[in-house]
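User: Design a sequence. Structure:
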């Protein structure tokens, strides 16, 4: 599998659209349009990468500073895997790639600001790779099947990640 930077949102739009329509793991409007996604994904400092397996785009992630100024040494990343490719190790590969990129860009830590508590597969993966839950945000995510659920803030120093 290859992981490459991408500068055209259209390449990853089918994955973003599927995740937004599901409404279960990302705080995105379920009716998100390509133009709205383009605005979100083009914010300053964000770089988007794509995973390609057997010639098909199967996953994506972005990497950016979590904040500006004195907190700009902390990275933020978000990962999405195509629905038909989940469970195949793609998120693991994207995470490992993002750690290398974060370190190469001088980031000292990685923080996820909102990991939905019902996204058990992601929580298991992130904790197995060294991310720690450092906070709980009570009932901040309106899950389409479960209603209001908690979300977690996860954090780790780059050197502590596996």
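Assistant: Done.
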């Amino acid at each position: 599998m290859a992981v490459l930077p991408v500068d055209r949102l259209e390449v990853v739009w089918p994955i973003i659209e599927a995740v937004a329509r599901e409404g279960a793991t990302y705080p995105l409007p379920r009716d998100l349009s390509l133009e709205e996604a383009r605005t979100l994904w083009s914010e300053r400092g964000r770089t988007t990468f794509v995973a390609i397996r057997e010639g098909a785009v199967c996953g994506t992630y972005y990497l950016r500073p979590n904040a500006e100024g004195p907190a700009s040494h902390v990275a933020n990343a978000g990962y999405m895997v195509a629905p038909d490719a989940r469970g195949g190790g793609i998120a693991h590969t994207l995470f490992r790639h993002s750690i290398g990129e974060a370190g190469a860009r001088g980031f000292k830590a990685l923080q996820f600001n909102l990991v939905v508590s019902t996204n058990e597969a992601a929580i298991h993966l992130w904790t197995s790779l060294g991310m720690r839950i450092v906070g709980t945000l009570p009932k901040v995510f309106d899950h389409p099947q479960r209603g209001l659920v908690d979300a977690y803030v996860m954090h780790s120093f780059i050197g502590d990640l596996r």
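Residues 90-104 form the longest helix (15 residues). DSSP finds four helices and seven strands in the chain.
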